[in-house]
Amino acid sequence: xxxxxxxxxxxxxxxxxxxxxxxxxxxxxxxxxxxxxxxxxxxxxxxxxxxxxxxxxxxxxxxxxxxxxxxxxxxxxxxxxxxxxxxxxxxxxxxxxxxxxxxxxxxxxxxxxxxxxxxxxxxxxxxxxxxxxxxxxxxxxxxxxxxxxxxxxxxxxxxxxxxxxxxxxxxxxxxxxxxxxxxxxxxxxxxxxxxxxxxxxxxxxxxxxxxxxxxxxxxxxxxxxxxxxxxxxxxxxxxxxxxxxxxxxxxxxxxxxxxxxxxxxxxxxxxxxxxxxxxxxxxxxxxxxxxxxxxxxxxxxxxxxxxxxxxxxxxxxxxxxxxxxxxxxxxxxxxxxxxxxxxxxxxxxxxxxxxxxxxxxxxxxxxxxxxxxxxxxxxxxxxxxxxxxxxxxxxxxxxxxxxxxxxxxxxxxxxxxxxxxxxxxxxxxxxxxxxxxx
Length: 438
Description:
Layout: H1 8-40, E1 50-55, H2 59-71, E2 75-82, H3 85-96, E3 112-114, H4 118-123, E4 129-132, H5 139-148, E5 152-155, H6 163-179, E6 183-185, H7 193-203, E7 210-219, H8 233-239, H9 245-248, H10 251-254, H11 257-267, E8 273-279, E9 294-300, E10 306-313, E11 320-327, E12 331-334, E13 339-342, E14 346-348, H12 358-372, H13 379-398, E15 402-403, H14 404-408
Parallel strand pairs: 1-2, 1-4, 2-3, 4-5, 5-6, 7-10
Antiparallel strand pairs: 7-11, 8-9, 8-15, 9-10, 11-12, 12-13, 13-14
Helix pairs in contact: 1-6, 2-3, 2-12, 5-6, 6-13, 11-13
Protein backbone atom coordinates (compact mmCIF):
# COMPACT_ATOMS: atom_id res chain seq x y z
CA UNK A 1 0.00 0.00 0.00
CA UNK A 2 1.44 3.43 -0.91
CA UNK A 3 2.25 5.99 1.73
CA UNK A 4 -0.65 8.46 2.03
CA UNK A 5 0.13 12.04 1.11
CA UNK A 6 0.01 14.77 3.73
CA UNK A 7 -3.22 16.67 4.32
CA UNK A 8 -4.12 19.24 1.71
CA UNK A 9 -3.14 22.32 3.73
CA UNK A 10 0.36 20.93 4.28
CA UNK A 11 0.58 20.10 0.58
CA UNK A 12 -0.08 23.70 -0.31
CA UNK A 13 2.68 24.82 2.03
CA UNK A 14 5.05 22.28 0.49
CA UNK A 15 4.11 23.47 -2.99
CA UNK A 16 4.90 27.09 -2.11
CA UNK A 17 8.19 26.13 -0.50
CA UNK A 18 9.11 24.00 -3.51
CA UNK A 19 8.45 26.83 -5.96
CA UNK A 20 10.39 29.29 -3.82
CA UNK A 21 13.40 26.98 -3.63
CA UNK A 22 13.28 26.25 -7.36
CA UNK A 23 13.10 29.96 -8.21
CA UNK A 24 16.12 30.75 -6.05
CA UNK A 25 18.09 27.92 -7.61
CA UNK A 26 17.20 29.05 -11.13
CA UNK A 27 18.24 32.62 -10.37
CA UNK A 28 21.53 31.46 -8.91
CA UNK A 29 22.39 29.36 -11.93
CA UNK A 30 22.14 32.26 -14.38
CA UNK A 31 21.60 32.35 -18.11
CA UNK A 32 25.17 31.33 -18.94
CA UNK A 33 24.84 28.12 -17.00
CA UNK A 34 21.58 27.32 -18.75
CA UNK A 35 23.20 27.76 -22.16
CA UNK A 36 26.07 25.49 -21.10
CA UNK A 37 23.57 22.89 -19.85
CA UNK A 38 21.81 22.87 -23.21
CA UNK A 39 25.08 22.58 -25.11
CA UNK A 40 26.11 19.62 -22.97
CA UNK A 41 22.76 17.85 -23.21
CA UNK A 42 23.11 14.31 -24.60
CA UNK A 43 20.99 13.03 -27.50
CA UNK A 44 21.61 16.10 -29.67
CA UNK A 45 21.77 15.07 -33.32
CA UNK A 46 23.13 11.64 -32.47
CA UNK A 47 22.20 7.99 -32.68
CA UNK A 48 22.19 7.42 -28.94
CA UNK A 49 19.06 5.96 -27.37
CA UNK A 50 16.31 8.16 -26.00
CA UNK A 51 14.76 6.20 -23.14
CA UNK A 52 11.01 6.73 -22.85
CA UNK A 53 8.79 6.18 -19.82
CA UNK A 54 4.99 6.26 -19.72
CA UNK A 55 2.96 7.32 -16.67
CA UNK A 56 -0.67 6.33 -17.20
CA UNK A 57 -1.18 3.13 -19.20
CA UNK A 58 -4.73 3.47 -20.45
CA UNK A 59 -5.75 3.54 -24.10
CA UNK A 60 -4.51 7.07 -24.73
CA UNK A 61 -1.21 6.32 -23.05
CA UNK A 62 -0.69 3.17 -25.09
CA UNK A 63 -1.25 5.08 -28.33
CA UNK A 64 1.10 7.85 -27.14
CA UNK A 65 3.86 5.24 -26.68
CA UNK A 66 3.41 4.06 -30.27
CA UNK A 67 3.66 7.63 -31.56
CA UNK A 68 6.74 8.32 -29.43
CA UNK A 69 8.52 5.20 -30.67
CA UNK A 70 7.83 6.17 -34.29
CA UNK A 71 8.99 9.75 -33.74
CA UNK A 72 12.67 8.87 -33.41
CA UNK A 73 14.59 5.87 -34.80
CA UNK A 74 16.46 5.45 -31.52
CA UNK A 75 13.58 5.91 -29.07
CA UNK A 76 13.06 2.97 -26.73
CA UNK A 77 10.34 2.29 -24.14
CA UNK A 78 12.15 1.30 -20.94
CA UNK A 79 9.69 1.95 -18.08
CA UNK A 80 5.95 1.99 -17.41
CA UNK A 81 3.91 3.27 -14.46
CA UNK A 82 0.25 3.26 -13.47
CA UNK A 83 -1.69 3.13 -10.23
CA UNK A 84 -3.07 -0.21 -11.40
CA UNK A 85 -0.64 -3.04 -12.20
CA UNK A 86 -3.13 -4.72 -14.53
CA UNK A 87 -3.23 -1.62 -16.74
CA UNK A 88 0.53 -1.86 -17.22
CA UNK A 89 0.31 -5.49 -18.30
CA UNK A 90 -2.60 -4.85 -20.68
CA UNK A 91 -0.79 -1.92 -22.26
CA UNK A 92 2.54 -3.73 -22.55
CA UNK A 93 0.94 -6.81 -24.09
CA UNK A 94 -0.87 -4.64 -26.62
CA UNK A 95 2.33 -2.79 -27.53
CA UNK A 96 4.29 -5.99 -28.00
CA UNK A 97 1.75 -7.09 -30.61
CA UNK A 98 2.64 -4.09 -32.80
CA UNK A 99 5.24 -5.00 -35.42
CA UNK A 100 6.45 -1.40 -35.64
CA UNK A 101 7.08 -1.15 -31.90
CA UNK A 102 7.96 -4.51 -30.35
CA UNK A 103 11.69 -4.32 -31.14
CA UNK A 104 11.90 -0.93 -29.39
CA UNK A 105 10.40 -2.11 -26.10
CA UNK A 106 12.44 -3.33 -23.15
CA UNK A 107 10.42 -3.10 -19.94
CA UNK A 108 11.42 -5.84 -17.50
CA UNK A 109 9.30 -6.42 -14.39
CA UNK A 110 11.60 -4.28 -12.26
CA UNK A 111 10.72 -1.26 -14.41
CA UNK A 112 6.96 -1.73 -14.20
CA UNK A 113 5.85 0.49 -11.35
CA UNK A 114 2.37 0.50 -9.81
CA UNK A 115 0.65 2.46 -7.07
CA UNK A 116 0.24 6.15 -6.32
CA UNK A 117 4.00 6.62 -5.96
CA UNK A 118 4.82 4.81 -9.20
CA UNK A 119 5.54 8.08 -11.01
CA UNK A 120 8.45 8.78 -8.66
CA UNK A 121 9.99 5.37 -9.30
CA UNK A 122 9.64 5.73 -13.06
CA UNK A 123 11.20 9.19 -13.11
CA UNK A 124 14.12 7.84 -11.07
CA UNK A 125 14.65 4.96 -13.53
CA UNK A 126 17.02 6.77 -15.92
CA UNK A 127 14.44 7.67 -18.56
CA UNK A 128 15.01 10.72 -20.78
CA UNK A 129 11.46 11.42 -21.93
CA UNK A 130 8.30 11.05 -19.85
CA UNK A 131 4.81 10.70 -21.34
CA UNK A 132 2.10 11.95 -18.96
CA UNK A 133 -1.26 10.35 -19.77
CA UNK A 134 -2.91 9.74 -16.40
CA UNK A 135 -6.26 11.25 -15.40
CA UNK A 136 -5.79 15.06 -15.55
CA UNK A 137 -5.80 15.60 -11.78
CA UNK A 138 -2.29 14.21 -11.50
CA UNK A 139 -0.76 16.30 -14.29
CA UNK A 140 0.64 19.21 -12.18
CA UNK A 141 2.25 16.83 -9.67
CA UNK A 142 3.78 14.55 -12.30
CA UNK A 143 4.94 17.38 -14.56
CA UNK A 144 6.66 19.11 -11.68
CA UNK A 145 8.46 15.92 -10.67
CA UNK A 146 9.59 15.20 -14.25
CA UNK A 147 10.92 18.71 -14.90
CA UNK A 148 12.58 18.75 -11.48
CA UNK A 149 14.44 15.60 -12.49
CA UNK A 150 15.54 17.04 -15.84
CA UNK A 151 13.22 15.03 -18.10
CA UNK A 152 11.61 16.10 -21.38
CA UNK A 153 7.82 15.72 -21.28
CA UNK A 154 4.83 14.98 -23.45
CA UNK A 155 1.91 16.37 -21.46
CA UNK A 156 -1.57 15.19 -22.42
CA UNK A 157 -4.49 17.60 -22.21
CA UNK A 158 -5.89 19.08 -20.00
CA UNK A 159 -3.03 19.97 -17.68
CA UNK A 160 -5.06 20.45 -14.49
CA UNK A 161 -8.56 20.29 -13.01
CA UNK A 162 -8.43 23.46 -10.91
CA UNK A 163 -6.79 26.88 -10.90
CA UNK A 164 -4.07 26.04 -8.33
CA UNK A 165 -3.01 23.24 -10.68
CA UNK A 166 -2.94 25.59 -13.66
CA UNK A 167 -0.79 28.08 -11.77
CA UNK A 168 1.59 25.31 -10.78
CA UNK A 169 1.91 24.09 -14.37
CA UNK A 170 2.64 27.62 -15.59
CA UNK A 171 5.47 27.92 -13.09
CA UNK A 172 6.79 24.45 -13.86
CA UNK A 173 6.87 25.21 -17.58
CA UNK A 174 8.83 28.38 -16.89
CA UNK A 175 11.39 26.27 -15.05
CA UNK A 176 11.47 23.89 -18.01
CA UNK A 177 12.45 26.83 -20.24
CA UNK A 178 15.22 27.78 -17.85
CA UNK A 179 16.51 24.20 -17.84
CA UNK A 180 16.31 23.74 -21.61
CA UNK A 181 13.69 20.99 -21.39
CA UNK A 182 10.86 20.35 -23.84
CA UNK A 183 7.20 20.28 -22.80
CA UNK A 184 4.88 19.37 -25.67
CA UNK A 185 1.11 19.47 -25.26
CA UNK A 186 -1.54 16.93 -26.23
CA UNK A 187 -3.78 19.70 -27.61
CA UNK A 188 -3.31 17.99 -30.94
CA UNK A 189 -5.38 20.26 -33.20
CA UNK A 190 -2.48 22.71 -33.02
CA UNK A 191 -0.58 20.17 -35.15
CA UNK A 192 -3.28 19.93 -37.85
CA UNK A 193 -1.86 21.38 -41.11
CA UNK A 194 -5.35 22.25 -42.32
CA UNK A 195 -6.21 24.10 -39.12
CA UNK A 196 -2.89 25.94 -39.35
CA UNK A 197 -3.51 27.07 -42.91
CA UNK A 198 -7.11 28.10 -42.25
CA UNK A 199 -6.16 30.07 -39.14
CA UNK A 200 -3.32 31.76 -41.05
CA UNK A 201 -5.91 32.86 -43.61
CA UNK A 202 -8.21 34.15 -40.85
CA UNK A 203 -5.35 36.02 -39.18
CA UNK A 204 -4.43 37.57 -42.52
CA UNK A 205 -7.92 39.04 -42.82
CA UNK A 206 -9.63 36.52 -45.14
CA UNK A 207 -12.96 36.73 -43.28
CA UNK A 208 -12.54 40.25 -41.95
CA UNK A 209 -12.84 41.06 -38.25
CA UNK A 210 -13.70 38.02 -36.12
CA UNK A 211 -16.71 38.76 -33.91
CA UNK A 212 -18.21 35.34 -33.02
CA UNK A 213 -16.76 31.90 -32.39
CA UNK A 214 -18.51 28.60 -31.73
CA UNK A 215 -17.04 25.53 -30.02
CA UNK A 216 -19.30 22.46 -30.21
CA UNK A 217 -18.70 19.00 -28.75
CA UNK A 218 -21.87 16.90 -28.86
CA UNK A 219 -21.23 13.22 -28.18
CA UNK A 220 -22.93 10.11 -26.92
CA UNK A 221 -22.22 8.25 -23.66
CA UNK A 222 -18.81 6.78 -22.81
CA UNK A 223 -17.48 3.77 -20.92
CA UNK A 224 -18.10 2.91 -17.28
CA UNK A 225 -16.56 0.21 -15.07
CA UNK A 226 -18.97 -1.79 -12.85
CA UNK A 227 -17.93 -1.91 -9.22
CA UNK A 228 -16.17 -5.11 -8.07
CA UNK A 229 -16.55 -6.62 -4.58
CA UNK A 230 -12.94 -5.96 -3.55
CA UNK A 231 -12.86 -2.32 -4.65
CA UNK A 232 -12.69 0.44 -2.06
CA UNK A 233 -14.31 3.80 -2.78
CA UNK A 234 -10.96 5.11 -4.05
CA UNK A 235 -10.54 2.08 -6.31
CA UNK A 236 -13.97 2.71 -7.78
CA UNK A 237 -13.42 6.41 -8.40
CA UNK A 238 -9.99 5.83 -9.91
CA UNK A 239 -11.33 3.13 -12.26
CA UNK A 240 -14.17 5.47 -13.26
CA UNK A 241 -12.11 8.65 -13.15
CA UNK A 242 -13.97 10.35 -16.00
CA UNK A 243 -17.10 10.81 -13.85
CA UNK A 244 -15.43 12.61 -10.94
CA UNK A 245 -14.60 16.30 -11.17
CA UNK A 246 -11.54 16.02 -8.95
CA UNK A 247 -10.03 13.52 -11.40
CA UNK A 248 -11.25 14.68 -14.83
CA UNK A 249 -12.28 18.28 -14.31
CA UNK A 250 -15.69 17.34 -15.83
CA UNK A 251 -15.96 16.49 -19.51
CA UNK A 252 -16.05 20.10 -20.68
CA UNK A 253 -12.51 20.32 -19.29
CA UNK A 254 -11.28 16.81 -20.11
CA UNK A 255 -12.58 16.67 -23.68
CA UNK A 256 -14.07 19.98 -24.79
CA UNK A 257 -10.78 21.75 -24.06
CA UNK A 258 -9.73 20.79 -27.61
CA UNK A 259 -12.14 23.09 -29.45
CA UNK A 260 -11.97 25.78 -26.77
CA UNK A 261 -8.22 25.82 -27.44
CA UNK A 262 -8.85 26.09 -31.20
CA UNK A 263 -11.06 29.15 -30.64
CA UNK A 264 -8.45 30.77 -28.38
CA UNK A 265 -5.85 30.06 -31.08
CA UNK A 266 -8.04 31.75 -33.72
CA UNK A 267 -8.65 34.76 -31.51
CA UNK A 268 -5.06 34.97 -30.33
CA UNK A 269 -6.05 35.33 -26.69
CA UNK A 270 -8.46 34.52 -23.90
CA UNK A 271 -11.83 36.02 -22.88
CA UNK A 272 -12.55 38.44 -20.10
CA UNK A 273 -15.60 36.73 -18.59
CA UNK A 274 -18.02 33.80 -18.83
CA UNK A 275 -21.60 32.97 -17.93
CA UNK A 276 -23.36 29.68 -18.56
CA UNK A 277 -25.65 26.87 -17.55
CA UNK A 278 -25.42 23.11 -17.28
CA UNK A 279 -26.61 20.12 -15.35
CA UNK A 280 -27.38 16.39 -15.12
CA UNK A 281 -30.44 15.64 -17.21
CA UNK A 282 -29.69 12.06 -18.34
CA UNK A 283 -26.69 10.90 -16.31
CA UNK A 284 -28.41 11.09 -12.93
CA UNK A 285 -27.47 7.72 -11.40
CA UNK A 286 -24.87 7.38 -8.66
CA UNK A 287 -22.51 5.55 -11.03
CA UNK A 288 -22.04 8.78 -12.98
CA UNK A 289 -20.22 10.47 -10.13
CA UNK A 290 -20.69 14.23 -9.96
CA UNK A 291 -20.02 15.56 -13.46
CA UNK A 292 -22.71 17.18 -15.61
CA UNK A 293 -23.96 15.78 -18.92
CA UNK A 294 -24.31 19.17 -20.65
CA UNK A 295 -22.69 22.59 -20.46
CA UNK A 296 -23.45 25.80 -22.36
CA UNK A 297 -21.18 28.78 -21.81
CA UNK A 298 -20.96 32.23 -23.37
CA UNK A 299 -17.51 33.77 -23.11
CA UNK A 300 -16.98 37.46 -23.81
CA UNK A 301 -13.74 39.11 -24.87
CA UNK A 302 -12.82 42.63 -23.85
CA UNK A 303 -13.39 43.82 -27.43
CA UNK A 304 -16.93 42.38 -27.47
CA UNK A 305 -16.19 39.16 -29.36
CA UNK A 306 -18.32 36.23 -28.17
CA UNK A 307 -17.26 32.60 -27.89
CA UNK A 308 -20.29 30.31 -27.64
CA UNK A 309 -19.32 26.96 -26.13
CA UNK A 310 -21.65 23.95 -26.04
CA UNK A 311 -20.95 20.35 -25.09
CA UNK A 312 -23.17 17.38 -24.37
CA UNK A 313 -22.82 13.64 -23.65
CA UNK A 314 -26.26 12.09 -23.97
CA UNK A 315 -27.45 8.95 -25.79
CA UNK A 316 -29.72 9.07 -28.82
CA UNK A 317 -28.73 12.60 -29.80
CA UNK A 318 -26.99 14.09 -32.82
CA UNK A 319 -23.20 14.26 -32.65
CA UNK A 320 -21.26 17.34 -33.71
CA UNK A 321 -17.68 18.32 -32.92
CA UNK A 322 -16.24 21.40 -34.60
CA UNK A 323 -15.35 25.07 -34.28
CA UNK A 324 -16.96 27.79 -36.36
CA UNK A 325 -15.70 31.35 -36.82
CA UNK A 326 -17.86 34.24 -38.04
CA UNK A 327 -16.15 37.34 -39.35
CA UNK A 328 -17.32 40.61 -40.85
CA UNK A 329 -16.63 39.40 -44.41
CA UNK A 330 -16.90 35.63 -44.21
CA UNK A 331 -16.71 32.55 -42.02
CA UNK A 332 -14.67 29.42 -41.37
CA UNK A 333 -15.43 25.85 -40.27
CA UNK A 334 -12.80 23.81 -38.47
CA UNK A 335 -13.39 20.14 -37.81
CA UNK A 336 -11.58 16.85 -38.41
CA UNK A 337 -13.21 16.08 -41.73
CA UNK A 338 -14.02 19.49 -43.15
CA UNK A 339 -11.88 22.63 -43.06
CA UNK A 340 -13.45 25.49 -44.98
CA UNK A 341 -13.01 29.24 -45.31
CA UNK A 342 -15.92 31.11 -46.91
CA UNK A 343 -15.38 34.58 -48.37
CA UNK A 344 -16.38 35.67 -51.87
CA UNK A 345 -15.32 32.16 -52.81
CA UNK A 346 -14.87 28.91 -50.90
CA UNK A 347 -11.46 27.54 -49.90
CA UNK A 348 -11.25 23.96 -48.70
CA UNK A 349 -8.23 22.21 -47.27
CA UNK A 350 -7.36 18.98 -49.03
CA UNK A 351 -5.62 16.48 -46.81
CA UNK A 352 -2.53 15.07 -48.44
CA UNK A 353 -2.44 11.34 -49.08
CA UNK A 354 -0.35 9.54 -46.49
CA UNK A 355 -0.32 12.53 -44.14
CA UNK A 356 0.66 11.76 -40.56
CA UNK A 357 -1.87 11.92 -37.77
CA UNK A 358 -1.89 14.93 -35.47
CA UNK A 359 -0.94 12.57 -32.63
CA UNK A 360 2.19 11.52 -34.50
CA UNK A 361 3.07 15.10 -35.40
CA UNK A 362 3.11 16.26 -31.78
CA UNK A 363 5.62 13.53 -30.88
CA UNK A 364 7.68 14.25 -33.98
CA UNK A 365 7.98 17.84 -32.79
CA UNK A 366 8.92 16.78 -29.26
CA UNK A 367 11.72 14.46 -30.36
CA UNK A 368 12.99 16.82 -33.06
CA UNK A 369 13.33 19.54 -30.41
CA UNK A 370 15.35 17.21 -28.19
CA UNK A 371 17.67 16.13 -31.00
CA UNK A 372 18.24 19.70 -32.24
CA UNK A 373 18.74 21.20 -28.76
CA UNK A 374 15.88 23.57 -29.59
CA UNK A 375 13.41 22.64 -26.86
CA UNK A 376 9.68 23.05 -27.46
CA UNK A 377 7.56 24.60 -24.73
CA UNK A 378 3.76 24.71 -25.02
CA UNK A 379 3.28 25.71 -21.40
CA UNK A 380 1.54 29.03 -21.99
CA UNK A 381 -1.30 27.90 -24.22
CA UNK A 382 -1.82 24.45 -22.73
CA UNK A 383 -2.23 26.03 -19.27
CA UNK A 384 -4.44 28.93 -20.30
CA UNK A 385 -6.68 26.82 -22.54
CA UNK A 386 -7.14 24.45 -19.61
CA UNK A 387 -8.11 27.42 -17.45
CA UNK A 388 -10.54 28.53 -20.17
CA UNK A 389 -12.36 25.20 -19.79
CA UNK A 390 -12.21 25.35 -15.97
CA UNK A 391 -13.62 28.89 -16.10
CA UNK A 392 -16.60 27.55 -18.05
CA UNK A 393 -17.15 24.81 -15.48
CA UNK A 394 -17.02 27.36 -12.69
CA UNK A 395 -19.73 29.35 -14.47
CA UNK A 396 -22.02 26.34 -15.05
CA UNK A 397 -21.53 24.89 -11.57
CA UNK A 398 -22.26 28.18 -9.77
CA UNK A 399 -24.58 30.00 -12.16
CA UNK A 400 -22.47 33.13 -11.69
CA UNK A 401 -20.48 35.38 -14.00
CA UNK A 402 -16.82 34.35 -13.73
CA UNK A 403 -14.05 36.69 -14.84
CA UNK A 404 -10.69 35.54 -16.15
CA UNK A 405 -9.04 37.09 -13.10
CA UNK A 406 -11.39 35.24 -10.73
CA UNK A 407 -10.71 31.97 -12.53
CA UNK A 408 -6.93 32.39 -12.54
CA UNK A 409 -6.86 33.35 -8.85
CA UNK A 410 -9.44 30.80 -7.66
CA UNK A 411 -8.50 28.99 -4.47
CA UNK A 412 -10.70 25.96 -5.19
CA UNK A 413 -8.33 23.02 -4.75
CA UNK A 414 -9.75 19.61 -5.68
CA UNK A 415 -6.84 17.66 -4.19
CA UNK A 416 -8.04 14.82 -1.90
CA UNK A 417 -6.89 14.49 1.67
CA UNK A 418 -4.78 11.45 0.80
CA UNK A 419 -3.85 9.22 -2.11
CA UNK A 420 -4.50 5.82 -0.56
CA UNK A 421 -6.69 2.77 -1.24
CA UNK A 422 -9.52 3.49 1.14
CA UNK A 423 -12.00 6.31 1.37
CA UNK A 424 -12.42 8.69 -1.56
CA UNK A 425 -13.45 12.34 -1.85
CA UNK A 426 -17.10 12.98 -1.03
CA UNK A 427 -19.31 13.04 -4.12
CA UNK A 428 -20.98 16.45 -4.15
CA UNK A 429 -23.01 17.46 -7.19
CA UNK A 430 -22.91 21.17 -8.00
CA UNK A 431 -26.18 23.13 -7.87
CA UNK A 432 -26.23 26.39 -9.86
CA UNK A 433 -27.27 29.28 -7.63
CA UNK A 434 -26.24 27.35 -4.51
CA UNK A 435 -22.68 26.20 -5.21
CA UNK A 436 -20.31 29.00 -4.28
CA UNK A 437 -17.63 30.57 -6.42
CA UNK A 438 -14.33 29.98 -4.59
